[in-house]
């Protein structure tokens, strides 16, 4: 938000706030390029894919906006580390999806939507070796929810997307009772998927029309 505000207003205080925030994140525990969720309690050992993707997006924008050479170098180096972490530890080629985090096998919609929106379709193909059609189909079959609460099925009849998959619904005891494991429409995640579809439509129309 601070970086976007700086872009719109030119208010240098916003850039200073964003820079100080990113430098604080730089001070958090790192592992193989990824950054932990915090520096206290359990968070020092939690490496969230979503958070690292958000960090990467902020670093990338800050790197283009800052006029300080040392800050530009710092942001660039951090980007390199995070990208390596996401490629090595977050993307699971065996499932065709991005993991929720380091050593975390739970399925999460937003790690996948955010990965495409952060890196873009072309980079997912070139950098991660992702087949976009298979990737989106996997997201749909894993997280889309029908009106009866079932997962997968015809995407054109789905009501939206759940935050996780049917296994998560089962593990939580069901969202509508102990034996009725229904998916729910997660509004934030469904809106993320709308953005994903728009991004892909633009990509296939203007960037890769054939």
What features would you describe in this structure?
The structure is a single chain. The protein is mainly alpha-helical. It has nine helices and six strands. Helix 2 packs across helix 3 (49-65), helix 5 (109-119) packs across helix 6 and helix 5 (109-119) packs parallel to helix 9. The two termini are 36 Å apart. The model has no long low-confidence stretch (mean pLDDT 92).
User: Ranges with pLDDT <50 over ≥5 residues?
Assistant: none
Strand content: 5-15%
Mean pLDDT: 92
First and last CA, distance: 36 Å
Helical stretch tally:
9
Shape: globular
Q: Give Rg in angstroms.
A: 19 Å
Strand order of the largest sheet: 1-2
User: Which class best fits the helix and strand makeup?
Assistant: mainly alpha
In this structure, how is the largest beta sheet organized?
2 strands, antiparallel
Helix content: 55-70%
List the helices and strands and how they pair.
Elements: H1 2-9, H2 12-26, E1 30-31, E2 34-35, H3 49-65, H4 69-90, E3 91-92, E4 97-98, H5 109-119, H6 121-128, H7 132-143, E5 144-145, E6 160-161, H8 166-171, H9 187-207
Antiparallel strand pairs: 1-2, 3-4, 5-6
Summary tags:
210 residues; mainly alpha; two-stranded antiparallel sheet; two-stranded antiparallel ribbon; 9 helices; 57% helix; globular
Question: How would you sum up this structure in a few lines?
Answer:
The protein is 57% helix and 6% strand.
